Structures are given as structure tokens and as C-alpha cells.
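Let's sit down with a protein and look at its sequence and fold side by side. Once you have written the record down, we can walk along the chain together.
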Amino acid sequence: MANSEYGYVRGFEENDALPPSNWIVVRIDGRGFSKLCKKYNFDKPNDRRALNLMNAAAAEVVRSFVDVVLAYGQSDEYSFVFHESAGLFERRAAKLATSVATAFTAEYCMQWSTFFPDAPLSRPYPTFDGRCVCYPKRRILRDYLSWRQVDCHINNLYNTTFWNMVLRGGMSATEAEQALKGTVSSDKNEMLFSRFGINYNSEPEAFRKGTVVYRSYSESEHLNGSLTAENIGDKASVSASKTQLEKDRKRKQKAQIVVDHPDIIGDAFWTAHPYILASKRGQDYGE
């Protein structure tokens, strides 16, 4: 950037670099999606086309940002987890949030016609905002992801019960809201089964658990591509480390992007995919 008498204005820019050694979550949310759902007549309580579009857009964002180790989505939101060692944009919050949100918005709009071929987009177009949150420990990061999956379950159970009462039970929206006021999960499960013959546990996992997007590697690919403490520490290894980082970047770009609906609250998923939250220095992923 050229120097001039006006260069002093750069001093007004805020330093928003996020702290090092923290896992960064960029969460994007759809803006005005209640109106969008009505405009394009989304199916209630879940529109499979809309969810598949969200997942397709998320998969491309994960593919584009190699520092993203995992993404979790439900409804009109997605959380993209950047590795604790990520250095993209010097970890500047505004650049990370805007880059992910604009990339997701572009993919969502560009892929719309694939999932809604009979409903062309028109203004106002769908957009997503984004924010960054840092989590200093893997345990706290996992608690965050568990929180989002629990939220998915709570919201979906309520919406499934509510819309069945309205669409199949003949209730008005106000009557359904009143009927559900003060109910707990077991009450809603009983309502669904006794009134509509729906076993909630048999509903699609994508609706009940949300969606996880991650890279899949074979064991040999993971071991061969990982940085270890031995090849990072001294000056003589700097060149080799840079070469390894470039290989790691290319390996991630070629990796298979998996879109699945597992339970991420328990340990089974993380035990089966330890590399997702593994340290670049080979430390235990469970810290």
C-alpha cells in the first residue's frame, strides 16, 4: 500500500486478530430465512431440498478452506471449525467471518437451481451473516458442538410436533402453540405417536441430529501427512516443514469430503476420527 499524507487513516483500523492456539468457530446464519421459507414454500417441518442445499454449500466451503477441520449444520446455520494452528488472514476475525459467509452465500445461490429447479431465485437473494468465536480447549469446542446438536434436537422435535398438529391435526398455529406450552420431550414424543402414529426416533437422522461435514483419510494418508514435534522444532527443519505444510494442504484438497449425520455428543465419532481434532504436533486429541 503506497505511503501518502493520508496514510494516517490506517491507524483507525481495529486490530481484530484472534488469539493463537485457540480453535476458531465461524458460525454463519441465514438472514431473514423465515420470509424466504414462505416465499419459496418450503416443506414443513423440514424441507429435504433446502437441507441438501445447505449441506452442498457447506461441503464446498470445507473444500475451499483447508484449515477447516469440520463443519456442523442444522436449519439455516452452519459452524465451521478452524484448526487451532490456523494462520489464514493472520487470524483476523473480520476477514475470516466475511470470507466464510460470502463463500457460503455464493455457493448457496449458485447451487439453488440444482435443488429448486422449478423455483428460480429473485430479489431479495438469500444471504448469510457470520461471526467468530474462539475456544481454547478441545473439550470446550466439543461442548460447543454438542450444544448445537442438542439445539437441533430440541427445535426439530418441537417443529415436528407443531406442524403435525397444524397440517394433520387441524389446529391453528395459536392453538398448537398453546397445546405445546410447558411440554417436555417425552410429552411431544407421546403426542406424535398417539395422535399421528409417528415414532420420533424413526425420523431421518438429518432432521434429528443435523449434519457433519469433514475430510476422510485412510490411516496411512493421515500418518504420512501429519507434522510431528520432531520435524518442527529447529531451524534446519524450517524448509522441510514448509514443504510438509504444502503437501498437507494438497492432501486436504484431494481428500474425500464426507457429509453425514452422526452423534457428535458421545465419544464414538471422535474416537473413530481422531485426526479431526488432533494437534499439528501429534498431541492427544482429547485435551
